[in-house]
Amino acid sequence: MKVLLMGHPNVGKSVLFNRLTGTNVTVSNYPGTTVDYTKGYMRLENKEVEVIDVPGTFSLEPKDKAEEVAVKMLKENRDAVVVCIIDSTKVERGLYLTLQIIEEGYPVVISSNMWDVAKDKNIQIDVEKLEQILGVPVVPTIAISGEGIKELVSKIKKAKSVEIETIVKKVGGET
Amino acid sequence: MELTVDKRWDLIDKISKQTVKFKKYKSTLKEVIGELTVKPLTGIPIAIAVLYGFWSVFSSFAGFFTDGFLVKLFDEHWLPWIQGAFPGGLHNWFYNLMVDVGHIQNGALVPSNSCFESFGALTSGLFVPFGVVLPAIFIFYLMMAVLEDVGYLPRLAVLVDTVLHKIGLHGYAIVPTILGFGCNVPAVTATRILETRKQRFLMMTLLGIFIPCGAQLGIMQEVIPEYMGLIILYLLFGYFVTGFILNKVFPGKTPEILIDVPPYQKPLTRNVMTKVWVRLSGFLKIAVPFVILGCLIVGVMYLTGTMDWLANLFGPIFTHWFGVPKETVGPLVAAFMRKDLAVAQLSAIEMTKYQMVTSVVLVSIYFPCLATFAMILKEGGKELLGALAVLVASTFIYGGLIHLIWILLGVA
Fold first, then answer.
1. Phi-psi category of A159—alpha, beta or left, where left has phi over 0 and alpha has psi -120 to 50?
2. Is residue A166 part of a domain?
């Protein structure tokens, strides 16, 4: 099993990667710090699992070289579990990429990162409801301080692929 | 099954309406500062203050350690000791390569009395990277890591967007540019965040030619602090003028800037430290062997007479077109390997201060160091030929232009 960390630029993928694997990938507070992928390993139920820190991308239609790398990594790892990292202050935008990845059939776990910033901005996210609608685990995280990382790791095993039609039906819409 | 773009947004709209609530909140101090640093009226003065502060800390810190301790250590203790302890003498070629080439004074060959002049692998080869460059890039990387982690760079990008559009780039090109002042190698990789081939080509070319790296800034700070500002201004002038022309000449598009300005964040000490360490260890692993190798290659070229031959071959171009002594050919050879070494070497050549400025400008623009060249080759591929053409043209134009300026001022 492989774990891919994917999400928009500057949502904290590399910080999370460092947390999960204990490595020291360069992280900064500007979009586009990671322009190539990095591999590392984490322990999951006593097994070594490969984790890949993928460059940030807004969608699966690449518009620069770094995004090309991201999409290529996804397509090359058909058997991977994808941890979709979204910025909790911009849930809608994060969901766009997440839904695209779900539509491609990948098992997904969502890390709703920068939870502290969302709290500061008084944004309230109903995690349970979101989990229920999407049918995948959603874990609030603050990668910088390490909060929620343990729970995220425990949920990686529970990641599953979902039919997009099921999600559409749950919110009461039609396709 | 896949949704269409519209259907997907429609779905997201429904999901978020049921799960996300935006309540009222008061702006935090971070956000107020965030606003102030991005609005032109307050942002531009703040940007100038930040860069000036960066500059002052850099020069005073580097000067303090290098002049205060390391120059004394190397020139008063290490150099005399190794001159005595190393077998051979000024007439032994191996001694020349490793310790001291000596120099002619009143017709006699005498030992050097500083590590800038000796040019041995064990003297200048160690003094340049450890005595001069290391303290300079330490403080440089430290401040840069803080700027990166705080989240200032994207705001700078917004501020300079209009200006950079004039040269075929957009505001975000400030990120590779600023990284380039640290080291050109990661800066070239960072051009991947630019959207079009044209932008990437422009950015790599301008980086390779006009942006001096941290190691070079460090050594300039030590040998020619009084002309450093002038040289950087001239290089930035070249950066903009060349960018402006290339933008007109090369086909391709420059899309609008689309970036997220992240909230300010308190940098994590651990992260800043690891980042500085990763970059410093990169310097120690790659740059130090290159400086020493550069010393040896240049030494061999002097001893075998290759350097004199080159100096005589290119002499007319140097003296007439650029107005610098033909001995400048030595530093230019060294500059293939390392720019810091080249500037150190220049400082030992006798010339006027105007010639010094010209030759440092030449060392800066005429060729990127080998490591950067390799990275441009890897990232740019066939665009490299175009970049090389621009490079050759720029060297002659800007090298000649500065000579012309000196002539017009009556100082050449």
1. beta
2. yes
Residue A175, pLDDT > 70, answer no
| Domain total of chain A | 1
Residues of B in contact with A33 (CB under 8 A): 148
**pTM here?**
0.88
Nearest CA in chain B to A62: B195
Give me the pLDDT at residue B286, please. Answer: 85
Q: Model confidence at B325, in pLDDT bands (50, 70, 90)?
A: very high
Closest CB from A35, A163, A164 relative to B193 = A35
Measure CA of the first residue to CA of the last residue in chain B; give whole Å: 73
Q: Which 77-136 residues of chain A touch chain B by CB within 8 A?
A: 91-92, 95-96, 99-100, 103-104, 117, 120-126, 129-130, 133-134
Pairing of strands A47-53, B20-22: unpaired
pLDDT of residue B363: 93
Query: Tell me, what's the ipTM?
Result: 0.90
Evaluate if residue B381 carries a pLDDT over 80. Answer: no
Residue A175 lies in a domain: no
CATH number, domain containing residue A116: 3.40.50.300
Q: Compute the distance between CA of residue B152 and CA of residue B136 in angstroms, rounded to an integer.
A: 22
CA–CA separation, B149 and B145 (whole Å): 6
Give the domain range for residue A146: 2-170
In this complex, is the C-beta atom of B374 within 8 Å of any C-beta atom belonging to chain A? no
